[in-house]
Amino acid sequence: MPDFAIENTVRAEGFSTIAGIDEAGRGPLAGPVVAAAVILPDGFYCDGLNDSKKLSPARREKIYSVLTAEGSGVIWSFSRVDSAEIDSINILRATHKAMSSAAESLPVKPAMTLIDGLPVTGFPYPFRAIVKGDSLSLSIAAASVLAKVERDRIMMEYSNEYPQYQFNRHKGYGTRVHIEALRTYGPCKIHRRSFAPVAQTVARA
């Protein structure tokens, strides 16, 4: 389970305000990539807070509610990059842009940021890149939950707009159901045309 060990080490080095950064939606064939930035207050506790991938949707929603509740002391922000821009600048740069924008959107400037994964080019604040950070750092785990829930909610809205793709079931990932819908209907406005499975359906049309 993630804990505050990394945050405590960084704080002991003199960095008082520490933000966790993570993203959701790097791999899907449709929809945005969403990043979240989170500053947890000292002594913050939320039962079951973990890497979002290890939590059920219901558990993620519950933790999301705790993190964003008024009076929780948690400071948070989101940023999204939509499919058209992903196609324009590529998914890696889009992910880095979302992470940077989420950090810059925080109402409090972090002294240090903890980023899940590899280093982010051009990041606006000092950072430590931590591979599998969402399983190690509570700040990153909190960001992973917020980003995942926020993106899932966006995809549920898109499911109402484009019901034939059943985004409510797969959230844009390349499942069998999704690929079959792509072959039947072709891509819609939110599909990432630079991703091979989508590009192949366009080529066949």
Task: Tell me the layout of helices and strands.
Elements: H1 5-12, E1 18-24, E2 33-39, H2 57-68, E3 75-81, H3 83-89, H4 91-105, E4 112-116, E5 127-130, H5 138-161, H6 167-170, H7 176-185, H8 196-204
Parallel strand pairs: 1-4, 4-5
Antiparallel strand pairs: 1-2, 2-3
Helix pairs in contact: 2-5, 3-4
Structure commentary:
There is one protein chain. This protein has helices spanning 5-12, 57-68, 83-89, 91-105, 138-161, 167-170, 176-185, 196-204; strands spanning 18-24, 33-39, 75-81, 112-116, 127-130. The protein has a five-stranded mixed sheet. With 205 residues, the chain is an alpha/beta fold. Helix content is 43%, strand content 15%. The N and C termini lie far apart (47 Å). The protein contains eight helices and five strands; from the N terminus they run αββαβααββαααα. The longest helix has 24 residues, at 138-161. It has one domain (5-161): Nucleotidyltransferase, domain 5. Helix 3 packs across helix 4 (91-105). The model has no long low-confidence stretch (mean pLDDT 96). Strand 1 (18-24) and strand 2 form a beta hairpin.
